[in-house]
Automatic annotation (TrEMBL):
Species: Absicoccus porci
Subcellular localization: Cytoplasm
Lineage of producing organism: Bacteria, Bacillati, Bacillota, Erysipelotrichia, Erysipelotrichales
Means of activity regulation: Allosterically activated by ADP and other diphosphonucleosides, and allosterically inhibited by phosphoenolpyruvate.
Top EC class for this record: transferase
Residues reported in the UniProt entry to bind ADP: R22, A23, V24, T25, R26, R155, G186, A187, E188, K215, R216, H217
Protein's job: Catalyzes the phosphorylation of D-fructose 6-phosphate to fructose 1,6-bisphosphate by ATP, the first committing step of glycolysis.
Binding-site residues for ATP, renumbered to this chain: G12, R73, L74, G103, D104, G105, S106
Record-given protein name: ATP-dependent 6-phosphofructokinase
Domain of life from the UniProt record: Bacteria
């Protein structure tokens, strides 16, 4: 039976990663395992930056944002020689299996390691909610709360000045943060990769909101990587009755204390990951589907298409 497991966090950090580290460590230790923290993602794995974790060393972190293990992106991990180096570091310490908390790029690394004989289980740690096999990723709900708080504040000042606030939110080509926050904040327009962006059409809708609906302000929530929001704000000022102002929320969305949902999700997923590793199972990722914590083969998870958000988009249109 497996005796020593490792845990790492990889890619962009997300609130709740610490709760996952705590869960894996404590569930593991309580089941008689030794648990090791691998620092700075796959980079630390190849460099051998690996230390034992104890019940105490993961104390006082369930409520903390970020990740005590640090995170990194290592595109070179797709190279076999880099991975071989990493596997050697694990073997040197007798670490037979690893929990990887990160996005789908990190899952590819986890799959490759499993194929090299190190069982890995992936946990979905990203604010983007862009891992298609799970209804929610660890960190999404906390980031959503942050975005909603920021947009509520922008609304106050937009309303005082007859302005249009264009708010760029993260998501890495996934529109969930924009869509969820836009509905929750009562935005006037939401733009995501799924809705598409027709600049002239959006400007026309803003003119209608000003001239026909007599709105005092307008909020446009737009996913990152779609357009230059500063340039677009200038066009709003030139072509509509609103003064346009762009706000890019940026990395503020990734910080902060995880909300209870993310802490619970991370704890449940961490528990499931340890249970699978103890049964000698690897190459799977953990998901929440219809309120149940389940395991899915990574090969299957990576190929799943993104669920259409049409129903939520329709709801939004009916609320405007
Ligand atoms: O994947 C999380 C994320 O925050 C994305 O939303 C964003 O596009 C990206 O990471 C930013 O990456 P970095 O922190 O490396 O600038």
């Amino acid at each position: 039976m497996v005796k020593r497991i490792g845990i790492l966090t990889s890619g962009g950090d997300s609130p709740g990663m610490n709760a996952a580290i705590r869960a894996v460590t404590r569930v593991g230790i309580n089941a008689g395992l030794e648990v090791f923290g691998i620092y700075n993602g796959y980079k630390g794995m190849t460099e051998g930056y690996i230390e034992p974790l104890t019940r105490e060393s993961v104390g006082e972190i369930v409520n903390r944002g970020g990740t005590i293990l640090g995170s990194a992106r290592l595109p070179e991990f797709k190279d076999l020689d880099v991975r071989q180096k990493a596997v050697k570091q694990l073997q040197k310490r007798g670490i037979e299996a690893v929990v990887v908390v990160g996005g789908d790029g990190s899952y590819r690394g986890a799959l490759a390691l499993t194929e090299m004989g190190v069982n890995c289980i992936g946990l979905p740690g990203t604010i983007d909610n862009d891992i298609t096999c799970t209804d929610y990723t660890i960190g999404f709900q906390t980031a959503l709360e942050t975005v909603v708080e920021c947009i509520d504040k922008l609304r106050d000042t937009s309303n005082s000045h007859h302005r249009c606030s264009i708010v760029e939110v993260m998501g890495n080509r996934c529109g969930d943060l924009a869509l969820w926050s836009g509905i929750a904040c009562g935005a006037e327009i939401i733009v995501t990769s799924e809705t598409g962006f027709d600049e002239e059409e959006v400007l026309g809708r803003l003119r209608d909101l000003d001239l026909i609906k007599k709105k005092r302000h307008a909020i446009v929530v737009i996913s990152e990587k779609i357009t230059d929001v500063d340039q677009f704000a200038k066009k709003v000022s030139l072509n509509t009755g609103f003064a346009g102002r762009a706000t890019t929320l940026g990395h503020i969305q990734r910080g902060g204390s995880p909300c209870p949902f993310d802490r619970l999700l991370a704890s449940q997923m961490g528990e499931k990951a340890v249970d699978l590793l103890m049964q000698g199972i690897g190459g799977q990722c953990i998901a929440i589907r219809n309120n149940k914590i389940v395991a899915i083969p990574i090969t299957e998870a990576l190929g799943m298409p993104h669920e259409s958000r049409k129903p939520l988009m329709n709801l939004f249109e009916r609320l405007v």
